[in-house]
Amino acid sequence: MTDAAIPRFTGDARPYAGGDPYADHRTADFPFTHLVDLADRRLGAGVIAANDEFFAERENLLEPGPAVFDPEHFGHKGKVMDGWETRRRRGVSAAEPHPASDDHDWALVRLGTPGVVRGIVLDTAHFRGNYPQAVSVEATSLPGTPSPEELLAPGVKWTTLVPRTAVGGHAANGFAVDAEQRFTHLRVNQHPDGGIARLRVYGEVVPDPAWLAALGTFDLAALENGGQVEDASDRFYSPATNTIQPGRSRKMDDGWETRRRRDRGNDWISYRLAAQSAIRAVEIDTAYLKGNSAGWASLSVRDGEGGDWTEILPRTRLQPDTDHRFVLDATARATHVRIDIFPDGGISRLRLYGSLTDEGTAALAARHRELGGS
């Protein structure tokens, strides 16, 4: 994946002329959006500080779903925008009315879970003539829960993920990232000022081995613990990644639902665990899936990249809108897990409870060190 292969959008968009405001939104299929959004609020991400948010609050950057545009919504400061928007910067005097070349606004973002960043999208949706001229993104890794003051302290090392790059208005501006490091926080800069509607940070979760060791037994498939979806047979209605998000599903599209099959096959999701694990118990939840839950499900595991799948939970009847719990007859050692549903439909969550093996613990600790973890 090369950054040069990613489309670039620059310049103003046309003024809004009515109708669907997304009709002329410029976007592309970026090659990293199948990965987890490390800046997802559901994982605990937050925009913890910004130097300016005069027109629109910084927290809007991480709102789920696309930005909303209401052409009639004005407040006492002006047009109300669904994004982060700063005031217009000015120069130092009438003789020098323009901002200096290094003037910029910034926002500090705490990732929901530390990880390796593979791609970033800064979407200026609905900011047609009031978007930044350019953006840049830096990242750092600090232990614990540092304050904004600690993050901005002189000794903190920041790594550039996106150099200062011109962007376009009313466009999804995507950037591939090539930095094999584990990061906890980002600093998003807009030069010199303007508005950004949404921030998405795609990558791979890198959990803290010491934390997982302290927990002992935990959900081995959970995104926050380093689990990830490798592939799925169908993502028609909702992403398979929803099945390993934190918490219980709160509505039907917060799970995974496939289109209706008209053949004799079945649907499935395959997962990679953070490291080799020993699975002892399973939860399959069909919350909010009532007339469209899977009819049956089975679970299989594999230890390593190759080899055959071994069934650890035989095909079992599922009930709609129900949390199903299973204690395995024997501990299952695995690095990969696959759930098959029959014939189609959906599940809302999959939980795999157990602990890392000694081999898995050692592998996870080694990767943590390689990526800069302490």
Explain what you see.
- It is globular and about 80 Å long.
- The chain has helices spanning 148-151, 209-215, 358-370; strands at residues 36-37, 46-50, 74-75, 78-79, 84-85, 105-123, 134-140, 159-166, 172-176, 183-191, 195-196, 198-205, 218-219, 228-232, 256-257, 267-285, 296-302, 310-317, 323-342, 346-347, 349-356.
- The strands form five sheets. Strands 1, 2, 6, 7, 8, 9, 10 and 12 form an eight-stranded antiparallel sheet that branches.
- β17 and β18 (310-317) form a beta hairpin.
- The protein starts with 35 loop residues before the first strand and ends with a helix.
- Helix content is 6%, strand content 39%.
- The model has no long low-confidence stretch (mean pLDDT 95).
- The chain is mostly beta strands and 374 residues long.
- The longest helix is centred in the C-terminal third of the chain and has 13 residues, at 358-370.
